[in-house]
Amino acid sequence: MELGHISDEEFDSHYPLRVQKVSGTQWTPISVVKKAIAYLGVDDEQSILDIGSGAGKFCLIAGSLGNSKVIGIEKNKSLVKLSQKLMDEFGLKNVNFIHGDIKDLDFSQFDHFYFFNAFEEHVNLDDQLDKELMMDPEYYQSMIDWINQKFDDAPKGTKIVTYCGDCREIPDSYSLVKSSNRGKLRFWVKRD
Ligand SMILES: C[S@@+](CC[C@H](N)C(=O)[O-])C[C@H]1O[C@@H](n2cnc3c(N)ncnc32)[C@H](O)[C@@H]1O
């Protein structure tokens, strides 16, 4: 089922109210998913990882717009279950969700990456899904450093789309190809 033509409100109505309520700040808008996936690639040779897939909105929309394999990893189990339920409902065979911590995943399985500010919750109270979480700038920095190294280890030609944030997770070995949405949406490629 192609989901690119529906509105954010219509898509979000598939979620329970508590998940709908945070859509504006936590889940990627459909217009942004369309731009991101057009850059990352839509053919079945590509696998794309959404780092911190939340309620699955990026993966579900992106997967419906082409044949690329779109995989999300998310640490919150109930959000993974919700994502999987919608994946079945929409009949998306090229989408998959993994429950776990990004730190346990082998990045070499994926060609390209989407990153929507997943670690911001450790430094910004307004950005917390998990209200029990404590502010932890040191942990935030360690995650940024860790993912920066993973991106740096990726082969030449790896593409990343970042949405929001200051992009400190992007190593110097990447070039900014273009940006959109007043600089909030950025398109990167690994040079060497
Ligand atoms: C801003 S939301 C983005 C959701 C999704 N990518 C989208 O665009 O619709 C970031 C998500 O990253 C998840 N997250 C944060 N740290 C994580 C980690 N270490 N491993 C897996 N998921 C993580 C959070 O639980 C949250 O659901």
From TrEMBL:
This protein's record includes keyword Cell inner membrane: no
Gene Ontology MF: a single term: arsenite methyltransferase activity
SUPFAM superfamilies reported for this sequence: S-adenosyl-L-methionine-dependent methyltransferases (SSF53335)
InterPro entries: Arsenite_MeTrfase-like (IPR026669), Methyltranfer_dom (IPR025714), SAM-dependent_MTases_sf (IPR029063)
Family indicated by similarity: Belongs to the methyltransferase superfamily. Arsenite methyltransferase family.
Keywords linked to the UniProt accession: Methyltransferase, S-adenosyl-L-methionine, Transferase
E.C. number: 2.1.1.137
Keyword Endoplasmic reticulum: no
Protein name: Arsenite methyltransferase
Limits of the Methyltransferase domain: 44-119
Gene3D superfamilies: Vaccinia Virus protein VP39 (3.40.50.150)
Catalysed reactions listed for this entry: arsenic triglutathione + 3 [thioredoxin]-dithiol + 3 S-adenosyl-L-methionine = trimethylarsine + 3 [thioredoxin]-disulfide + 3 glutathione + 3 S-adenosyl-L-homocysteine + 3 H(+); arsenic triglutathione + 2 [thioredoxin]-dithiol + 2 S-adenosyl-L-methionine + H2O = dimethylarsinous acid + 2 [thioredoxin]-disulfide + 3 glutathione + 2 S-adenosyl-L-homocysteine + 2 H(+); arsenic triglutathione + [thioredoxin]-dithiol + S-adenosyl-L-methionine + 2 H2O = methylarsonous acid + [thioredoxin]-disulfide + 3 glutathione + S-adenosyl-L-homocysteine + H(+)
Any Gene Ontology biological process: methylation
Coiled coil location: none
Superkingdom of origin: Bacteria
